[in-house]
Fold:
Amino acid sequence: SSYYRLPARKVPTVTTVNDFIYEKFRHGLARQVHALQKRAAIREADRIICVSENTRRDLCEMYPEIPDNRIAVVPNGVSKVFLASKSRCVSEPPFALFVGSRDQLYKNFRVAAEAVSLVPGLSLVAVGPAPTDDERKLAQVHRIDFRSVDDDGLLDLYERAVCLVYPSLYEGFGLPILEAMACRCPVVCLAVPGVKDTAGDAGFYVPEN
Structure:
């Protein structure tokens, strides 16, 4: 199970742990319920898959009683849609790309918007859910185009973007980084754990938020 659900009867169980976002950034009832389910699934699992070294470190810190021989690091893969990328041609006028949820502060969407607006002639295309009222107001100040696309549409954007802007403060993995790199799209990101696990030596790292 990837969502911390235990089977009704005792069978060998493998649990995948993606991150500890709830523990680090969420509050209230949602965090409590998630933490209870996750704790039970982790403690009962015969094997635990962590999607990055950063997630493994967080797991070992929060659950020191779990022996190392029950934990394996298995990084996420990337869809064959992005692996099939063939062309790379930056659009005119140029745009940077932001991919993913924007409702959590750790994703740093406002920082991405403000940073891109400092570059003359560069706009930001934000792929994800429909914009909120606050985001529409932000778009009146900065050059932002909100898009909702399927994988083929996202492939096209990766192939035409100047870069992927990924200023997240924390990631279990950071799948858009891998998708962008499969399309040879440069990635500008913060030098934080989780992000560095995915981007490796190929990211363009910004040292400070």
Notes: The beta strands are 14-17, 47-50, 71-73, 95-99, 123-127, 144-147, 164-166, 187-190, 204-206. The mean pLDDT is 93.
